[in-house]
Design goal:
alpha+beta, 4 strands, globular, binds zinc ion
Length: about 140
Amino acid sequence: MNVENLLGRLDKVRQTGPGRWVARCPAHEDKTPSLSIRETDEGQLLIHCFTGCSASNVIAAVGLEFADLYPERPTALKNPERRPFPASDVLRALSHEIAVVAAAGEFILEGRAFSPDDHARLRLAVERIETGLQLSGGESHGR
Ligand SMILES: [Zn+2]
């Protein structure tokens, strides 16, 4: 999903900077725009309601899914034959996938339904984290 798809579902959208917007929060009675939206360099959408609605509530309120927030993107972990990885690449990829798992946990804790796409995205995140752990841990890569 691109950010326009999300912005198109929100009211009173106003751009506040490069990759940053505010809008009315769809998850509560919002008189003044209290929802901030940020698109990261990796294409991940970060959503924050200043009155405390969770990202999963906001997403559900506009009919989107967990997987819509976390586009699949090429990462260093996709090509495990290219070794060794710079530690910074592994950490960046891991932190992205960990964010996916953390958001999934939030959805599950709130009892929201997971679509097949959501399941696939979560499984991909788990696989990438496992790969990252292997790359950063115990195994020596021919040294
Ligand atoms: Zn809200």
